């Protein structure tokens, strides 16, 4: 394959990445931290094929673009509402259906894109 032959493939791949970044930016602007946290935890659960997985608060804060205290409050809310148990660097999603309802609609969109 020559350099000219590779351009359409590279262009197509870059476009998808760009679309995903735009979607993430819009999600950050439109939805609450708790909704985005639910979405992100559901996506991780889907990719890990597990309801329990290791997760550091600082990493989650970085992924959502918020401060550590903001994530701590969101995780306390999820635990209080019976959706997840969080502690010692672990998350356990205990009520997935409820978490899906609490998530922003971007979660449903991301699932459809993967299918």
Overall description:
There is one protein chain. By secondary structure, this protein is mainly α. The chain has one domain: Orthogonal Bundle (Arc Repressor Mutant, subunit A), CATH 1.10.10.10. It is built from 6 helices and 3 strands. It has helices at residues 3-30, 33-48, 57-64, 68-80, 96-102, 106-114; strands at residues 52-54, 84-87, 90-93. The protein has a 3-stranded antiparallel β-sheet with strand order 1-3-2. The longest helix is centred in the N-terminal third of the chain and has 28 residues, at 3-30. It is globular and about 30 Å long.
Features:
115 residues; disordered N terminus; single chain; globular; 6 helices; Arc Repressor Mutant, subunit A; mainly alpha
In what range is the share of β-strand residues?
5-15%
Highest CATH level, the class: Mainly Alpha
Count of DSSP strands? 3
Chain-averaged pLDDT = 79
Q: In which order are the strands of the major sheet placed?
A: 1-3-2
Helix content: over 70%
Distance between the termini: 29 Å
The rounded Rg comes to 16 Å
Poorly predicted sequence stretches spanning 5 or more consecutive residues: 1-22
Gross CATH architecture = Orthogonal Bundle
Short recap of the structure:
The chain has 115 residues and is mostly helical.
List the helices and strands and how they pair.
Elements: H1 3-30, H2 33-48, E1 52-54, H3 57-64, H4 68-80, E2 84-87, E3 90-93, H5 96-102, H6 106-114
Antiparallel strand pairs: 1-3, 2-3
Helix pairs in contact: 2-4, 2-5, 2-6, 3-4
């Amino acid at each position: 394959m020559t350099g000219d032959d590779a351009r359409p493939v590279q262009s197509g791949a870059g476009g998808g990445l760009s679309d995903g970044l735009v979607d993430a930016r819009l999600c950050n602007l439109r939805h609450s931290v708790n909704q985005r946290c639910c979405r992100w935890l559901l996506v991780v659960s889907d990719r890990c094929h597990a309801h329990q997985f290791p997760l550091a608060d600082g990493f989650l804060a970085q992924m959502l673009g918020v401060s550590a205290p903001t994530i701590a409050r969101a995780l306390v809310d999820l635990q209080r509402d019976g959706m997840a148990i969080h502690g010692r660097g672990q998350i356990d999603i205990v009520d997935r259906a409820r978490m899906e309802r609490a998530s922003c609609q971007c979660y449903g969109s991301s699932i459809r894109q993967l299918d």
